[in-house]
Amino acid sequence: MSASDANLDHELHSHGDTHGHGSTKSYLVGFLLSVALTAIPFWLVMSGITPANWTAAIVIVCAVVQIIVHTICFLHVTTSAEGGWTLLSYAFTAVILFITIAGSLWIMYHLNTNMMPGMMTGEVSTTP
Amino acid sequence: MATTYDQASQEAALSETFHLVEDEHGHGHGSPTLLGFWIYMMSDALIFAALFATYGVLSTSFAGGPVPQDVFDLRLVALNTAFLLVSSITYGFGMLAMERGQKGTVQLWLLVTALLGIAFVGVELYEFNHFAHEGAVPQRSGYWSGVWTLVGTHGLHVSVGILWIGIMMVQVAQRGLIEANKRRLMCLGMFWHLLDVVWIGVFTYVYLLGMIR
Q: How far is the C-alpha of B71 from the C-alpha of B143, rounded, in Å?
């Protein structure tokens, strides 16, 4: 965790509230970060000034960072909220989410490539 | 005997500390409802995990039908993203007003949030209508089944959220900012913010990555 993150974290808890409803500042910080993290990927894709691979990588990174920003600034998930249970269940959900999505893509990609070529395009086989 | 008893009670007191911390929240919402609702939302997130996985697996199954570049309009998606993002912060302002006990301000922010939500659903319905007009209907290909199910489920959640905001406005108008209503508003807030988080996944995966494929 960098120094600026630590400062932000301190801001969020500065009123000594374990539930963390945030403050005007935390909502504004979250909002401004989100605007930037939304504008950058939309601008890159709509203008097409970067190579597709780079654009895809930046878009994905922005989304991940924005999800973390929302989690901290809007959902107020912290180590102290609800005795840490919100964070624990959130982390657990993130793991399951990752396994479900990445696992499905991985397995189905290999199943697709291992399919018989004729079946991929829906052609009828000409061999008797 | 007395020392053993003391030790036992001290140990009991120490082990109690973990639970006592939970009771010291002070705001009067140490209710288990918030954590329970949070866990419900995590299970809701898993529904979206399944839908994202389905969409991902079907993301190249066009079956000769329309491709994303033919149909998607990123300007509309950007507008919708803005609606939802702004609605997140307006709800946040509502929560801050709730903490200060300003009933009228809470109602105002709830109304603004609901209107932004309605704008979001409105644009999405327009977009779906456009999809259908271009022949990008769910039964056209696996890809469009995936899009309609994923984006549609999110839109349905937002619609339910708008309905819930309406119900809470009536509740707050009738009974004011009582503890029960504060708890409900906090649950609604979590729900609303989580929908925004899911939308980040939708606009990134479906729309932005769909356009540069």
A: 13
In which domain, by residue range, is A74 found? 1-78
How do residues B65-112 score in pLDDT, each as one tens digit?
Answer: 999 999 999 999 999 999 999 999 999 999 999 999 999 999 999 999
Chain-chain contact of B89 with A96 (C-beta, under 8 angstroms)? no
Which of B52, B54, B57, B73 to probe the A interface (max A CBs under 10 A)?
A: B57
Same domain, A89 and A63: no
pLDDT at A67: 96
> Minimal Cα–Cα distance from B141 to chain A, Å?
13
Which 8-state DSSP code applies to residue A121? T
Helix (H) or strand (E) holding B122: helix B103-133
Residue A20 near chain B (CB below 8 Å): no
- How close is the nearest chain A Cα to the Cα of B8, in Å? 25
Does A42 contact B45 at a Cβ distance shorter than 8 Å?
no
| Confidence (pLDDT) at A18 | 39
pLDDT under 50: residue ranges of chain A = 1-18, 123-128
Contacts of A35 (CB under 8 A, 6+ apart): B85
Residues in B touching A90 (Cβ below 8 Å): 42
Residues A66, A87, single domain; the answer is no
ipTM of the complex: 0.82
Q: What is the pLDDT of residues B113-127, one digit of tens each?
A: 999 999 999 999 999
State whether A64 and A97 are in the same domain.
no
Same domain, A31 and A62: yes
Nearby residues of B146 by Cβ (< 8 Å), 6 or more positions away: B51, B54, B55, B57, B58, B59
Verify that A94 and A72 share a domain, yes or no.
no
Kindly determine whether residue A27 and residue B204, on different chains, have CB atoms separated by under 8 Å. no
Option in A52, A89, A108 nearest B39 (CB)? A89
